[in-house]
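User: I've been trying to design a sequence by hand for this structure and keep getting stuck. Would you show me what you'd pick, starting by listing the structure so we're on the same page?

Assistant: Good idea, let's start from the same input. This is the structure you sent:
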């Protein structure tokens, strides 16, 4: 049967067309603002590739157009290319993208691109080897940079860099990061620290607001910043062109500006739980339904019903809500 366009509209009238799909909870890095450390709940059983693809296909059939593979660290899964290819083959999907810390990307980039990944976001919080290791616990900056270059070389473009800016940790590196991004023609986004999980709650005292970040960008570049529409995302980032140059920078102001009214996304955990909001607990066990033999119709009905209950706004203002969340499980 041919493809029939469908739409997924939540209870507040928002069109949900973006799925963030965590394929694995584990990460080889231990970023201090993200990793739950000893507080971590035991990892839930991970869905096999075929079930991941089946769930993604159910969302795509309902109107999701973009799927981002995330985690944990998605490149820890050996069958990531199989997952990407399966989702890429779904009628109606426009883009399959990847969020990674980049450390394992260099040897995998070409295969992932061939499997249907269109573009990649790479997290990079520091260009200083020592400080990178301090932030990530054990990360190897040289390998991340090789991953960035491999992504550029194989055509996984545009490559976006995501930098979580933290006071006293890396806020002095906004300038060097701008230069690095400009030299390689990378898109760069600065992210406000979010109080997600105990690590995030603790780290959010280092929050640098996007207004301060943008002032530092202006100071470094000596240019005005001109607001532009995001041509590719439709997500929460606001983009600015730097003076008359070709360079754009984005800021994700999860804390200083509420962008929930435009939220277009839902998330799936690595065990197949549907998470309706990054900043509110509450899940629907779609993976469990698959294990119990649910049909595709059952899955789609459950998704439609759940999306009606998508919260209007995150609950980051409530420390109890924030502490109950876990970034590595929810996929950022
Ligand atoms: N491992 C992959 C990566 O590094 O991109 C994907 C998962 S990671 C959880 C996704 C993104 O969430 C990363 O850019 C990371 O820096 C960001 N992140 C994690 N904890 C955060 C927090 N508390 N506030 C803001 N961003 C956070």
């Amino acid at each position: 049967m041919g493809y029939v366009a469908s739409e997924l509209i939540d209870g507040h009238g928002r069109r949900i067309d973006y799925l963030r799909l965590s394929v694995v909870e584990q990460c080889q890095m231990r970023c201090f603002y993200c990793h739950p450390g000893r507080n971590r709940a035991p990892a839930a059983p991970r869905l096999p590739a075929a079930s991941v693809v089946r769930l993604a296909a159910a969302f795509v059939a309902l109107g999701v157009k973009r799927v981002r593979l995330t985690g944990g660290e998605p490149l820890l899964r050996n069958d990531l290319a199989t997952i990407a290819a399966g989702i890429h083959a779904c009628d109606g999907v426009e883009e399959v993208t990847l969020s990674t810390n980049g450390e394992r990307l260099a040897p995998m980039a070409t295969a992932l691109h061939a499997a249907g990944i269109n573009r990649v976001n790479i997290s990079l919080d520091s260009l200083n080897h020592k400080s990178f290791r301090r932030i990530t616990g054990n990360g190897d900056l040289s390998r991340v940079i090789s991953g960035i270059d491999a992504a550029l070389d194989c055509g996984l473009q545009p490559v976006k860099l995501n930098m979580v800016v933290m006071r006293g940790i890396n806020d002095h590196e906004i300038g060097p990061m701008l230069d690095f991004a400009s030299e390689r023609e990378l898109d760069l986004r600065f992210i406000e620290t979010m109080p997600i999980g105990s690590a995030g709650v603790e780290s959010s005292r280092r929050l640098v607001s996007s207004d301060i970040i943008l002032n530092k960008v202006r100071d470094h570049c000596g240019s005005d910043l001109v607001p532009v529409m995001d041509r590719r995302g439709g997500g929460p980032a606001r983009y600015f062109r730097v003076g008359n140059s070709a360079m754009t920078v984005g800021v994700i102001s999860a804390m200083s500006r509420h962008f929930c009214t435009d939220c277009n996304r839902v998330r799936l955990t690595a065990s197949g739980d549907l998470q309706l909001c990054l900043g509110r607990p509450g899940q629907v066990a779609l993976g469990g339904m698959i294990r119990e033999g649910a049909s595709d119709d059952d899955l789609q009905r459950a998704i439609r019903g759940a999306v009606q209950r998508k919260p209007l706004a995150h609950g980051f203002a409530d420390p109890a809500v924030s502490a109950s969340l876990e970034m590595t499980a929810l996929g950022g």
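That's my pick for every position. To get oriented when you compare it with your attempt: The pocket of S-adenosylmethionine is lined by residues 27, 33-34, 70-71, 73, 99-101, 123, 162, 164, 191, 193-194, 196, 200, 203, 327-328, 331-332 (CB under 6 Å). Residues 20-330 form a domain with the TIM Barrel fold (CATH 3.20.20.70).
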